[in-house]
Amino acid sequence: MREFLLLGLVSVLGLVSLTLLVHAEATELSKTCPPSFELLAEGQCKLRTLYDFYDSPAQHGGVKVRLPELETTYTPQQIDLGRQLFFDPLLSGKKDLSCASCHQPDKGFADGRGQGLGARQPGGVRKDLSRSAPTLWNVAFLKRLMWDGRASSLEEQALLPLFNPDEMANNADQLQKDLETTPAYVDLFRQAFGAPPTLDNLARALSAFQTSLVSFNSRYDRYAYGDASALSDQEIRGHNVFRGFVARCSQCHIPPLFTDSELAVIGSPALPGKAPDPGAGGISPDPNLQGAFRVPTLRNISATAPYFHAGQFNTLKEVVHFYNDNRGHAAPKDQNLKIHWHIHMTRGPELSKEDEADIVAFLGSLDDQSMTPPVPKTAPSGLPVAPALNLETP
Predict the structure, then answer these.
(1) Are 203 and 176 in contact (CB under 8 A)?
(2) Which CATH class is domain 219-364?
């Protein structure tokens, strides 16, 4: 009996120690802005890049152009709180998924799947979602979010996956209760916002963290900043084809963001055995949006295969060849799609195999994940940090 009591005491002390350790990890939020952000006098973090020295009309698409201004700035504490939340499975209904489960730092803040994995179904099997998890690099610059453009701000977007029954399957009342009853989060929200946890501030914190995910230190950027040796001869050829009137890639993937954040109908194929995805046409009566999806950024594109909204293509070589084929050749036959005029006309491929290979080589020069934030060692809730979860098994 004495041994049992001692064992129980050791277990309780161990649990208390773990709780104190978790609380200690999250006691003090960062007072320093992320790399490439300047701490302003009023306490907000403002992005600084060499693109600040350039000036150009909006959507100019040249090499030396100015980045658009980020509309919202945040404090270091709000950004750091968002980082803690982003990796914490407390945000999901079953406490087994976090934002980082589908937006994994080592996979370009995507998940390496054509279709994301969502909430567990009866029997423990995870639901296959209908679309892939898009990268979050430079997401704060986008005018439209989600593949179908249904959200217009990071704060609007932040709560959508949390309360979607197919994704993280939580609800507002449960999430609010979980935050309020987690001592570490009560403390962290007071540090970041001077108030107890609320869902509005949860969305703000997640938005703050995602705003810090910037990628402007690639070899392409060094080339744009004036280092002519940053790209190989093949990559420079690919850049020229990319910007040329025949390929017209840069008409939608406009530098330096390499997206225009617009919705476009490109005639992508449906997944085998599945109905065509209507894209933005599923939430809008506009016939021109049937089969329309948000133009993705090409930043860190080599890290985010497979490609398109449902992973229809495994390689960049396949993607480039798709665009160099006949207009609408892969589109579902039963859809009357208004394919974007920048897509090739019906006269067949116009780029050579060498041109295609050169574009693929150029896309590799857009890789830069040097600003990847550190993954928290522990989550404030005490749950396992999400990337360690095995998403394939019950």
Answers:
(1) no
(2) mainly alpha
Q: Are 338 and 142 in contact (CB under 8 A)?
A: no
Q: Do domains 24-215+372-388 and 219-364 have the same CATH topology?
A: yes
Domain 24-215+372-388 has CATH 1.10.760.10: yes
Task: For residue 165, give the H/E element and its range.
Answer: none
Chain segment 336-379, per-residue pLDDT in tens: 899 988 775 545 678 999 999 999 999 999 999 999 999 999 99
Residue-wise pLDDT for 50-85, tens only, equals 999 998 777 676 788 999 999 899 999 999 999 999
Could you give the CA distance from residue 99 to residue 120 in angstroms, rounded to a whole number? 15
Which of 218, 228, 231, 236 minimizes the C-alpha distance to 359?
A: 236
Q: What is the DSSP string of 128-148?
A: EPSS-----TTGGG-SSBSTT
Handedness of CA 290, 126, 377, 200 (dihedral sign): positive
Domains in the chain: boundaries = 24-215+372-388, 219-364
pTM: predicted TM-score of the whole model, two decimal places: 0.90
Partners of 225 in beta bridges: none
Residues with Cβ within 8 Å of 233's Cβ and at least 6 positions away in sequence, in order, are none
pLDDT at 222: 97
Sequence-distant (6+) residues with CB within 8 A of 139 are 145, 154, 210, 213
Q: Provide the 8-state DSSP code for 307.
A: B
Q: Which residues contact 240 (CB under 8 A, 6 or more apart)?
A: none
Compute how many other C-beta atoms are within 10 angstroms of the C-beta atom of residue 34: 19
